[in-house]
Amino acid sequence: MALRTEAEGWLRGKDTDQWNDTEVGARAVAKWRETIDDGRTWVVTDVGTGDVLGTISRGPADFDFWTAEDVPQAGFYLYKLIVARRSSGRQLGARMVDWASRVAALEGRDWVRIDTWRTNTGLHRYYEDLGFKHVRTESPVHRRSGWLAQRPAGALTHADDLLEVAGTCPGAS
User: Fold this and answer.
1) Is residue 32 a part of any domain in this protein?
2) Under 8 Å CB-to-CB from 23, ≥6 apart: which residues?
3) What is the 3-state secondary structure (H, E, C) of the chain?
4) Per residue of the chain (173 residues), what is the pLDDT tens digit?
5) Nearest to 171, CA basis, from 147, 154, 159, 150
6) How many domains does the chain have?
7) CATH of the domain at 123
């Protein structure tokens, strides 16, 4: 939760309205806690210190955005990728996406899919730089995310610097 709080503060200084609404944020954190309790959230830690450097979650297809025509079961749905500010510049976020991509491929999925905040164009560019292709933008009135993108499962941007996996993770090796 500390990573989310830190990210909210950092985003306030960016040209985006992402994660700045406390009411929406409270609902999102409650939903994230469910994801954690369900075992669908992982953390990246510093081997030497044990400090948490990042977190990544997966979830089901969000049917506010992904349709039957998208073949929802073909996707690994990536949520809540957050990197500690002290870890910025280490390509940790990209390596976490690579980890998810490897898991997706091992599960036989075709895509790693994301939906991001519609107004966060810097985040859109970040994911496009990681090989994601914009699929479309959905704008349900009760949601602020909806910029949909995907990249092929198994695609790697840092094949020479993969994250080590410890503990138990579905499909990880």
Assistant:
1) yes
2) none
3) CHHHHHHHHHHHCCCCCCCCCHHHHHHHHHHHHHHHHCCCEEEEECCCCCCEEEEEEEECCCCCCCCHHHCHHHEEEEEEEEECHHHCCCCHHHHHHHHHHHHHHHCCCCEEEEEEECCCHHHHHHHHHCCCEEEEECCCCCCCEEEEEEEECCCCCCCCCCCCCCCCCCCCC
4) 677 667 666 666 676 666 556 555 566 667 767 777 778 888 888 888 888 888 898 999 999 999 999 999 999 999 888 888 877 888 999 999 999 999 999 999 999 999 988 888 888 999 999 999 999 999 888 887 889 999 999 999 998 888 876 554 444 43
5) 154
6) 1
7) 3.40.630.30
Lookup: tokens for 20: 């700045």
Place of tokens 């309790």: 37
Domain that holds residue 54: 2-152
Structure-token pair, residue 168: 């138990």
